[in-house]
Every structure is written in C-alpha cells, then in structure tokens.
Write a structure and sequence with these properties.
With 176 residues, the protein is of the alpha+beta class. The protein contains 3 helices and 11 strands, in the order E-E-E-E-E-E-E-E-H-H-E-H-E-E. The strands form 3 sheets. It has a 5-stranded antiparallel beta sheet with strand order 6-5-4-2-10. A 3-stranded antiparallel beta sheet has the order 1-7-3, with no helix packed on it. Helix 1 runs antiparallel to helix 2. 18% of the residues are buried.
Length: 176
C-alpha cells in the first residue's frame, strides 16, 4: 500500500482583524476539493481567535481546506519514525505539540488521522518539509511573521523496522 495523506488546512492568526489574501499553487497534484470555494485565491478577513470570514460568500470558517488528486509527490522516508498502531495517539500528541500546534489544531489533526492509523500493526511516519512546501506553494498577503507547515506522510506496516529517527524542529509562533 502506498503513502496515505489528506486533509490539508490553513489556519490564520493575526494580531488584529486583518484582510488576508491566500494563493495556493500545486506543482505535483491537481486541486480537487476546497472549502470555502477556491477561485484562484481566497480573500478572507482573519480575526485574532483564528476565525475567518470568506469575502466571496460571507461564510465563517475555522480554516481554509483543500485536497488534491493525481499526486505525483515523492515522499521522503529516509528518516522517519516506526510507531506501533496502538501508540499512534500518544506519538502524534508528543510530536505535534513539540512542533508547535495548538491543542485545537492538534485535536483536529488527530481526529482525522487516528482512525486511519491506530489499527495498523505499525506505521512508518515521516513529516515532509521541502517535499511538501515545494509541491503545495502558499502565497499569503500580508506576509505572516511566522509560518508553520506540517505535512505527515505514513505507510502502514505489518512488521517493525529500525530506521534513523527524523529530527523535528520547534516552531516559534508569531502573529502578523
């Protein structure tokens, strides 16, 4: 079975109410679904609590969602983690907290991924850095003072493998 991935979302946290323009350029896949609707860009009013007002239709959102198909991305599994399915929840909590997700962001991530992973004997997990950012380029105006992009790829395994662990970076969160 190949690498599994999905549910990319974009959170925005300005210091004060801010009009934000977001563009997404996919280089190794094709845009399939977006919410709110993406028409070559998203124009939103972002609020300090992370809520977003989509200017195109006046709807409110917690994040911008997109998903793609026909992925031609070659994920990097040269350094990663082999985690027992039963340990997936604690592993994700530890690593996502370390990398800087808020509790709400982490919970959204885990709710999506845990059902797909915890019943596997093992999961080979790698967080994709440049592989992801080069295949899903973001342009945000105004430019945020900090930008955290986390993209996890995993492969379910029947047996444990020994591999060099991936070194993860701590993120310092700053607003616009």
């Amino acid at each position: 079975m190949g690498a599994q991935w999905g549910k990319p979302v974009i959170y925005i946290y300005p210091e004060k109410e801010t009009d934000v323009h977001v563009e997404l350029e996919l280089t190794t896949s094709d845009l399939y679904t977006t919410y709110p609707r993406y028409n070559n860009d998203w124009d939103v009013t972002a609020y300090p609590d992370g809520s977003l007002l989509n200017k195109a239709d006046g709807t409110n959102h917690k994040y911008l969602f997109w998903e793609s198909v026909n992925a031609r991305t070659r994920f990097d599994f040269s350094k990663d983690f082999c985690v027992a399915g039963s340990d997936t929840e604690s592993f994700l909590k530890e690593k996502l907290t370390y990398m800087g997700l808020t509790e709400e962001e982490m919970n959204e991530f885990i709710v999506y991924w845990l059902p797909k992973m915890e019943h596997n004997k093992y999961n080979l997990i790698a967080y994709q850095g440049d592989v992801y950012t080069n295949s899903a380029k973001l342009s945000i105006t105004p430019t945020p003072d900090s930008l955290l992009r986390i993209f996890m790829a995993y492969v379910p395994l029947e047996v444990k493998v020994d591999i060099e662990p991936q070194q993860l970076e701590i993120f310092e969160r700053k607003c616009f």
